[in-house]
TrEMBL record:
It comes from the Bacteria. It comes from Haploplasma axanthum. Keywords: DNA-binding, Repressor, Transcription, Transcription regulation. Residues 3-57 form the HTH lacI-type domain. The gene is lacI. Pfam families: LacI, Peripla_BP_1. One of its GO terms (molecular function) is transcription cis-regulatory region binding. InterPro entries: HTH_LacI, Lambda_DNA-bd_dom_sf, Peripla_BP/Lac1_sug-bd_dom, Peripla_BP_I. This is LacI family transcriptional regulator. Signal peptide: none annotated.
Length: 322
C-alpha cells in the first residue's frame, strides 16, 4: 500500500496540516521540523498528489505520453494525432521525452503519479516495463511492442520493408544497400525481415548499415558511398536518412535516379519538396496517434478491446527517385 500524508505525519510526530504546509510550501514551519518531515517523506517514499486539492472525483482528465525525443517528423506528427484526439474527449496531454534514458523514465513515472494521470501511452524503448503495473492505470504502446500483454498500435513494418525492396528489384537494381535504423528497434528488424525476404527471392545480396533515424552520420554516409561506387539502389528506413543520402550522392557526382535509385520511409512533407521528389513508404503517423488514444480511452472506460495489437497498413508513394 502506498504511504499517505497521514503516515508521514504519524512517523514525523507532527500534524497532517504541518506536513501539508511543507509539501505546498505555504505557511511557516520551523526549519528543524521541515527537515524531519522531508526526511520522513523520502524514507517512506511518499509521493504527494499535486491534484488532490482541486479534484472532486478520481478523474484528472490527463494522460501521459512518453517518447524518446520530440521533433518535426515522426514523433511530432504522432504527438499531434494523440493530442488532437484526446482534446475531443476533454483530455489534456503531458508529453515527456526520455532520450531512451532509464533514469529519466523513473523520474517521469514518479511525476505521473503526482498528477494522477488516467492512462499512459509509450512510444519509446521503455526499459522499466516491470514498473508500469505499479501505476495501476491503463498503458498502451505505439510503434513498439514492449510486452505481448500490453496493447499496442503499430504500422505494418514487414509490408513496408517488402514494398521498398520490391520497387528496387522491379527497377532492375542489383547492388543495393539498406540504410536502416538501430538494430535493437523492433521496427528496424521487421522492415529488415520484409526487405530481405524480397531480395532473397530475387537472388540479391544487400549490404546493411545502421544509422540514427533522425540524425544520421553524414560523414559516414559519404565514406560508404565513395567506397562502394557500384551501388545502384538504396532503401533508407527514414526519409531523414534518405534526404541526407540524396544530398551526399549529388555531392559526389551521382545522378538520381539514373545512377542510384533511392527510397525513403515515413513520407514526411520534405519528401515531396526535394528534387527529384523522393519515393517513400507512407505510414499514417497522425492516424496512428489518433487510434492510440481511442484505444487507451476504451481501456480507461474499462471497455474490452476487440484486438490487443492493431496493425495499420502502409503504402508506397511513387515519385521520381527510383
Amino acid at each position: 500500500m502506498k504511504p499517505t500524508i497521514r503516515d508521514v505525519a504519524k512517523k514525523a510526530n507532527v500534524s497532517v496540516s504541518t506536513v501539508s504546509r511543507v509539501i505546498n510550501k505555504k505557511g511557516y514551519v520551523h526549519k528543524e521540523t521541515e527537515d524531519i518531515i522531508l526526511k520522513t517523506i523520502e524514507e517512506l517514499g511518499f509521493i504527494p498528489n499535486q491534484l488532490a486539492r482541486s479534484l472532486t472525483n478520481r478523474s484528472s482528465k490527463i494522460i501521459g505520453v512518453i517518447v524518446p525525443h520530440i521533433g518535426p517528423t515522426f514523433y511530432g506528427e504522432l504527438l499531434e494525432g494523440i493530442e488532437s484526439q484526446a482534446a475531443t474527449s476533454g483530455y489534456k496531454t503531458m508529453f515527456c521525452h526520455t532520450q531512451d534514458d532509464p533514469v529519466r523514465e523513473l523520474e517521469y513515472l514518479k511525476f505521473f503519479e503526482q498528477y494522477n494521470i488516467e492512462g499512459l501511452i509509450i512510444a519509446s524503448n521503455f526499459s522499466n516495463t516491470a514498473l508500469l503495473s505499479d501505476l495501476n492505470i491503463p498503458v498502451i504502446t505505439v510503434d513498439h511492442i514492449l510486452d505481448e500483454n500490453i496493447p499496442s498500435i503499430t504500422s505494418d513494418n514487414l509490408k513496408g520493408g517488402e514494398l521498398g525492396a520490391l520497387e528496387l528489384v522491379n527497377r532492375g537494381r542489383k547492388k543495393i544497400m539498406l540504410f536502416r535504423g538501430p538494430s535493437f528497434l523492433l521496427t528496424t528488424m521487421e522492415r529488415t525481415i520484409g526487405a530481405l525476404k524480397i531480395f532473397k527471392q530475387a537472388g540479391l545480396y544487400v549490404e546493411i548499415f545502421d544509422f540514427d533515424l533522425v540524425n544520421p552520420d553524414i560523414t559516414l554516409i559519404e565514406q560508404i558511398l565513395i567506397n562502394n561506387p557500384e551501388t545502384d539502389g538504396i532503401f533508407a528506413f527514414s526519409d531523414t536518412i534518405a534526404l541526407a543520402t540524396m544530398n551526399t550522392l549529388k555531392k559526389i557526382g551521382k545522378k538520381i535516379p539514373d545512377d542510384v535509385s533511392i527510397i525513403g520511409y515515413d513520407n514526411i512533407p520534405f519528401a515531396s519538396w526535394v528534387s527529384p521528389k523522393l519515393t517513400t513508404i507512407n505510414q499514417p503517423v497522425n492516424l496512428m496517434g489518433k487510434q492510440t488514444f481511442i484505444k487507451l480511452s476504451q481501456l480507461i472506460r474499462e471497455k474490452e478491446l476487440e484486438t490487443l495489437h492493431d496493425v495499420i497498413s502502409v503504402e508506397i508513394i511513387k515519385r521520381d527517385s527510383v
